[in-house]
């Protein structure tokens, strides 16, 4: 692409006008490759921290484009650096690579038949959350941008990340480990962009939300210890089951009565309560496990503290004890408001009028949040449900029937590319 044409392209973005036959030609040329890569990754899924085949294909592709490539970050992560010919910011683009322990039930010709033993259970492996599409689209964007290398006003940092769905038990992983191993200190990105395919939008649509967009996700465990006794004489011991029941009620009142939910919503849910072996024995111990979802980091800390206080005091009031452990997971995913506002015109030109959708808050979580805590970030959602099908009826992400329509990939590749071009143009 010559200098005059690229200058027109970049200036057109800053003026809010989208038009470039040469750029569209690059997208058209890349689209079949993106589809081919996606099908291959889908047929050969790998779980978190084990994405060796995927990482190898990614690294080879980035090297073929003339990039500096680093591998083996956070087990299998890959970072490629595309250096533009002109000075400017470093833009980070991220894709996650891991699949899920789900047995695929779609009828696509490239369906996964891979299996594994996951936590003692034989199960299939499937890209049930669309990470295969993320990798393929970012590889496509890398190829398009590499063709523009001589005119790029800045650098592009391509991050292919393992274990977004969580690391295997006993291991670290994901975005947090990539940061811990120093990728931001080494490559110094100014901004971070990512996208996620979703069944909640139709092909051709992109969803966004400024500010808190996805919840933090944390796990808690409460162990209530009492004194075992016969069920006919509860006064002879301390009943942890009765205490656990009161703890459920008390903890559920934390959000509804003790947290300022006019600031941001929050959820505390119990997912498991286990204790006892038979009807007439009051057990010594009850185990309780749950999840915390929240959209404000200050509220998050308050909830942690109040769960601990509530459980301990309720247990104590009936002669029991409660031990509370909070396992901090992913922080709130916050889209930087200024960055979001700056990028919306470019996104709307990519999607076309009426196809850029403001999304509600999502109580699911994303470890892109760790990157967005370090630099301004923007994380958007790409529609993957075929046109003509109501997204409400489409199988959700993580379903064994999850399906991402291939006609969405070109738009995803465009969005990643134009994030880069528009940000660079506006940074001048």
Automatic annotation (TrEMBL):
Its cofactor is Mn(2+). This is N-acyl-L-amino acid amidohydrolase. GO terms for molecular function: hydrolase activity; metal ion binding. Keywords: Hydrolase, Manganese, Metal-binding, Signal. InterPro entries: Amidohydrolase (IPR017439), Bact_exopeptidase_dim_dom (IPR036264), Peptidase_M20 (IPR002933), Peptidase_M20_dimer (IPR011650). Residues 1-19 form the signal peptide. It holds the Pfam family Peptidase_M20. Residues 219-314 form the Peptidase M20 dimerisation domain. The Mn(2+) ion enhances activity. It comes from Pseudoalteromonas piratica. Mn(2+) binds at residues 129, 131, 165, 196, 398. NCBIfam families: amidohydrolases. Gene3D superfamilies: 3.30.70.360, Zn peptidases. The lineage of its organism: Bacteria, Pseudomonadati, Pseudomonadota, Gammaproteobacteria, Alteromonadales.
């Amino acid at each position: 692409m010559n200098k005059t044409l690229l200058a027109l392209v970049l200036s057109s973005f800053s003026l809010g006008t989208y038009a470039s036959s040469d750029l569209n030609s690059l997208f058209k040329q890349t689209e079949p490759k993106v589809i081919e890569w996606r099908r291959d990754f889908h047929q050969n899924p790998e779980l978190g921290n084990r994405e060796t085949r995927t990482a190898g294909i990614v690294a080879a592709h980035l090297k073929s484009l003339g990039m500096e490539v680093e591998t083996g970050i956070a087990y299998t992560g890959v970072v490629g650096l595309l250096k533009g010919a002109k000075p400017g910011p470093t833009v980070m683009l991220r894709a996650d690579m891991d699949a899920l322990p789900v047995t695929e039930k779609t009828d696509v010709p490239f369906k996964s038949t891979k299996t594994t033993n996951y936590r003692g259970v034989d199960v299939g492996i499937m890209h049930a959350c669309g990470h295969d599409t993320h990798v393929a689209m970012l590889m496509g964007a890398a190829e398009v941008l590499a063709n523009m290398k001589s005119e790029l006003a800045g650098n592009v940092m391509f991050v292919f990340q393992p274990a977004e769905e969580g690391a295997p038990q006993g291991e670290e992983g994901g975005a947090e480990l990539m940061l811990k191993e120093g990728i931001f200190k080494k490559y110094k990105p100014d901004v971070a962009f990512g996208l996620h395919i979703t069944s909640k939008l139709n092909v051709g649509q992109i969803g966004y939300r400024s500010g808190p967009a996805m919840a933090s996700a944390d796990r808690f465990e409460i162990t209530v210890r009492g004194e075992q006794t016969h069920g006919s004489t509860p006064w002879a011991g301390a009943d942890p089951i009765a205490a656990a029941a009161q703890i459920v009620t008390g903890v559920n009142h934390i959000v509804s009565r003790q947290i300022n939910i006019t600031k941001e919503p929050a959820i505390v849910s119990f997912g498991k309560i286990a204790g006892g072996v038979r009807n007439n024995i009051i057990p010594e111990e009850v185990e309780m496990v749950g999840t915390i979802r929240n959209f404000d980091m200050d509220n998050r800390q308050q909830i942690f503290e109040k769960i601990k206080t509530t459980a301990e005091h309720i247990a104590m009031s009936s002669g029991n004890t409660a031990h509370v452990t909070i396992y901090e997971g992913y922080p709130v995913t916050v889209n930087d408001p200024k960055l979001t506002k700056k990028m919306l015109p470019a996104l709307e030109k990519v999607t076309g009028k009426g196809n850029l959708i403001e999304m509600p808050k999502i109580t699911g979580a994303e470890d892109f949040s760790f990157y967005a805590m370090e630099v301004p970030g923007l994380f958007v959602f790409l529609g993957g449900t075929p046109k003509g099908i109501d997204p409400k009826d489409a199988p959700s992400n993580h379903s064994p029937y999850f399906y991402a329509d291939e006609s969405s990939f070109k738009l995803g590749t465009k969005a990643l590319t134009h994030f880069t071009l528009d940000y660079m143009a506006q940074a001048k």
